[in-house]
Amino acid sequence: MDKIYELAGNKIKVVLEPQLIRVYGNAQLWAYLKGKADRRSERSELLVNTIKADYEQYFGQALAISNASLIVEILVHIYCDYLGLSFNRIVPIKWIRKVVKKLLKRAEVVDCGEKSVDSNRWVWDLLAGSKALFIRILPENLNARNIKQH
Hints:
Blueprint: E1 2-7, E2 10-17, E3 20-24, H1 27-32, H2 37-59, H3 67-90, H4 94-108, E4 109-113, H5 121-127, H6 131-137
Antiparallel strand pairs: 1-2, 2-3, 3-4
Helix pairs in contact: 2-3, 2-6, 3-4, 3-5
């Protein structure tokens, strides 16, 4: 089921499927996460709580992924997207930019699945204890240089 969550004036696209959510790392999500670490922390929690509540209402059961694990997975994808877009702005070598562009396609859509459907859920669960670090390292204004167009 496709959903658009309007949070703080930003339209965040999410797809809900059994045992899986897909969060689209578009410019709206970047804008939503703009600000200091404490604000990003609050907004990350609100986003994840909103998605999980909707998931539970729609499927009749809770999504079996911790908030911290979801937040870390989303933030790491966004940060990789940010780094790749920044890299492509400064590297003039076309073939390298093409490779990075292919990687960016994977970073833009964050597939967050339960352990039974997501073979790397253990990585995000392991990193979940470092959620505060990932929140802090994300730039305050990801799109200050207007690198995310859509």
